[in-house]
Please model this.
Amino acid sequence: MTLRDHIYDMGRRGREAARQLGILPPEKKTAILRAMAEGLRAETPALIEANAKDLEAALAKGLSSAMIDRLTLNEKRISAMAQGVAEVADLPDPVGKVLAEWTRPNGITITKVRVPIGVIGIIYESRPNVTADAAVLCLMSGNATLLRGGSEAFHSNMAIAAVLQKAGQSAELPDDSIQLIPSIDRESVRHMAEMNQYLDLIIPRGGKGLIETVISLARMPVIKHNDGICHVYVDEAADLDMAVRIILNSKTQKPGVCNAAETLLVHEDIAPAFYAKAIPGLRAAGVELRGDPALCALFPDVTPATAEDWSTEYLDLILSARSVRGMDEAMNHIARYGSRHSDCIVTEDAQAAGRFLSEVDSAAVFWNASTRFNDGGEFGFGCEIGISTDKLHARGPMGLPELTTYKYLVRGTGQIRV
Amino acid sequence: MTLRDHIYDMGRRGREAARQLGILPPEKKTAILRAMAEGLRAETPALIEANAKDLEAALAKGLSSAMIDRLTLNEKRISAMAQGVAEVADLPDPVGKVLAEWTRPNGITITKVRVPIGVIGIIYESRPNVTADAAVLCLMSGNATLLRGGSEAFHSNMAIAAVLQKAGQSAELPDDSIQLIPSIDRESVRHMAEMNQYLDLIIPRGGKGLIETVISLARMPVIKHNDGICHVYVDEAADLDMAVRIILNSKTQKPGVCNAAETLLVHEDIAPAFYAKAIPGLRAAGVELRGDPALCALFPDVTPATAEDWSTEYLDLILSARSVRGMDEAMNHIARYGSRHSDCIVTEDAQAAGRFLSEVDSAAVFWNASTRFNDGGEFGFGCEIGISTDKLHARGPMGLPELTTYKYLVRGTGQIRV
Model:
């Protein structure tokens, strides 16, 4: 069987599994996930052993220490993975929820009800824990998954998938609910992306190169978790101390993530006063500043920002900063350079805040709060598969309901159309 | 300027227009749409004149009379187009609706609010009235449109777009809110499909070839209005007279549309009795039957169905029919051959109906009602841009809310993440 045939066969089997998963009662899904959490704990030694093969190959290939750290499984991380699975097991089942219901003049009743999406393809890189995270979030929302992990985590991913499948079987999980492509051939990404008769959705989790490949090839919907070029705009009516706390938190609390701020916009009237308060703290936190001429004039040791800086997601302790003549210029900057992820205004002026919230077209728009709150956990979703930077289907943090769709149930008593 | 540059420039301008459209108050949109309806009425002679050029070319090219009919504009059709625009003007504005709101333990308030999608590309064939229909539905939901009509309706489409733009200007519509690509070059489809920095969504309305091209090329989300291979399953516990009315209506009330039934599935225990009641009426309505061996044995003059029949959308007075051993076989048939559009069970058995409604994965699943009700008007949406056969973002009839997305507004008092 060719790789293509093998993947299409997995797709077909995933479709069959999805039909059964779609009608699995919540208590059954909870039991399956609990068994999986137990399985991961019980099989810790086997998982560490499989991971060792990947680590050995990674060292031989000379991967960076950051990459090797991301790849590493140890008791603590496996326990955290199992804990994550157990927490999803306790979340409310989104499937079957009635979203709307109405009766038409002819007497037919229409019910709009949440249903699983079907079969979800997930293509990811590096961290092996995604194998468990993604599979169980999809499973709890009634979806079958076809997983394709990174080549460097191949043995770890296979071992995790095997544990989940075995634990699932013991709790009557339908066969083929969770499938991992047992190949590191890059062509498997193409086959998945083209297989729109079997995959209802594809989610790429990884770098720009992977996302670009998937967008170009995919024949089914794609939900991307893309760059966050997030802005904090300090308005003329800002509480400057609050603004300092917010930019410091947005930039430095965890700089390597998508909801961290990358650019600071400051109303020119308060720029000198604000910079005087903010810059010492940012520097003390190790932040390198890249400034416009106005900032560089005030602080001559700030590196001048280039055109490229405004569209760069640093994911690091670097912050670009510029002053603006007012909120319109700030919003124009955000529209031009932002990635529609998380943008914030700090102001005491409710009217200005209202305009900013209304006119900035981002997944989450913040007024006087850190951009770091754009997160499934912080939103109270209990989990997230990622933060969608797409506008369709799901935007912002994706929890279990965002992994579902809906259908209409129409009940009649023999009505026909005239 | 090359065609590509021209289309990208239109995309960029559409993006600017969308920023203004997104915050246009409902009464302004209503006024704009009313002005457009008036404009279409007032410019009827000019529209008929432009249409005459297309009709002349169509005759010279030898297009079929059905094609020419679809292409033709006359006073009555222009009046209906204007009426349609005026009706959309009176629909409730979906933008700004609060979908959910909650406060987190740290005091931040999260509001999930409906917002426009942004810029929508619509690629369509043949009927010039789509120019007005699609543009005003998108406009009322706050979206800018980039339209690309079929070459055979080029002059009609240009004239309609010009009328809408002129009437819009008089009512302060932002420039570039409605743009029509002034070229019949097929490459324009490719440029639109690749331009994901400016188009948030692309909707192809047309035949399989167009849809296939768009799916293959598109780098942004696509919502398809695809085939409807719709089934009526007559259960062993069906009221046979009701079942006759429903299959007759589903098949013959308007056979050329996507929610018409194409396949009849009959429980084998009641098949002889049901066929005896149903077939005379179907034949009287001019329906040609393609049957399985069981049906052909009962009615030897029925054409035997081939494997291809089960996956064919006839869009005509043809019906494939077979008996099944029970509901599972019916649901397996639907899962295998259906297009997840509209499927119906006729039964008096509420438990069987419950299983069918739950397990059949179609945009609309019917119990004792005609499949022809899967329609925006019949659902009470007041309008529709089409019936989505996709599962993501919008499924089934798409009205104004389905042309929107959401964003989160997060209001704090200086909260930071710890």
User: Anything to note?
Assistant: Chain A has a mean pLDDT of 96. The longest helix of chain A spans residues 3-21.
